[in-house]
Amino acid sequence: MKKQRLFLLSLSICLILILISCEMLNSPIIDLDKPKVAYVVNKGCLEDKGLNQLGLEGINKIITEFGVKLTTIEIDKDDEEAFQKNFIKAAKTNDLIIVVGEEFKNVVNETATNYRDKKFIVTSNKIRESNVQNIAFKYEESGFLAGVLAGKKSGNKEVGYIAIKDNEPNKLLLSGYMSGIKVTNMSAVTRLLSGENVKYIEDCANVDLAYEEAKKLYDKGCEIVLTAAGKASEGVFKAAKEKGKYVINSGMNAEEVYKDYIDNSLASLVVHLDKVLYESLSEANKGMFKSGEINKINEGLKENTIEFIINDNLVNSEIINLINNYKSGVIKEKIEIPKKKEEVQEFKVL
């Protein structure tokens, strides 16, 4: 009996070592009675009609199915002391912490190291800790399709771009956008590359600032503006309606969340954080939390994680067919889209 117990103990230790070496934490995330999950976003950006809100929808679905206890936390990243304090508190009082935004990277990295018994899901970050699941998206693919549409629909006119900040996701989105425009409206790329038709508002809730910046772009001759400004994107739609211009929205489906501006909404780029979080939390609830370096998630058009919804009342079938052809080329990896602005000049589709 003693030998049998020793054998079972040795076997258990071997299995644990194998799992750790593969960087997969497959133990249950917490007490299955009431899993505690915290959702951390920038202050004022929870219901942003974009990525944060989509993520919340995915979590809410899990709440309905598995009875997860959710705490939403909006942190002011500009108040560094309070920011770190609140984040550590979230880690102490929850079992799994979901973080949206690359500005949290340093604090998440430090906290994940100090709280190995907790699990983290992060977006737009590159954290190598074994208790962290990294989620990224191929924003350049969605930007490319938006650029093909903007370039074709604008004719020989200018196009613009408005985002919250110049972070990694928005750099990818802009690079893809410029690349798509380059193949359909070469003349419009110049002022995007120079930054003249690119605006950053630094606040996901500042509708008025987005409105003013969009008006300037439209007054300068921009026919279409791609907006990735969260809740502030409503200001871009407002300006487009006043000026009789168009918007491509990066966020939720504009035909659903900006119904008053449907005649100005050409298309929507929807990055389905909701689906990814739903799947990740479902796996975690079953004790199959996938984390570490080898389990990074980076999805796009091929995985149907990025959806491009076109308003076919404003876009003719010829342009839609062209976009679908380019989409097919991206999915089949026949088109390699630049991830950096510096690579756009050399980009061409064979």
UniProtKB/TrEMBL annotation:
<comment type="similarity">
    <text>Belongs to the BMP lipoprotein family.</text>
</comment>
<dbReference type="InterPro" id="IPR050957">
    <property type="entry name" value="BMP_lipoprotein"/>
</dbReference>
<protein>
    <submittedName>
        <fullName>Bmp family lipoprotein</fullName>
    </submittedName>
</protein>
<dbReference type="GO" id="GO:0005886">
    <property type="term" value="C:plasma membrane"/>
</dbReference>
<keyword id="KW-1003">Cell membrane</keyword>
<keyword id="KW-0472">Membrane</keyword>
<keyword id="KW-0732">Signal</keyword>
<keyword id="KW-0449">Lipoprotein</keyword>
<feature type="domain" description="ABC transporter substrate-binding protein PnrA-like">
    <location>
        <begin position="37"/>
        <end position="341"/>
    </location>
</feature>
<dbReference type="InterPro" id="IPR028082">
    <property type="entry name" value="Peripla_BP_I"/>
</dbReference>
<dbReference type="InterPro" id="IPR003760">
    <property type="entry name" value="PnrA-like"/>
</dbReference>
<dbReference type="Pfam" id="PF02608">
    <property type="entry name" value="Bmp"/>
</dbReference>
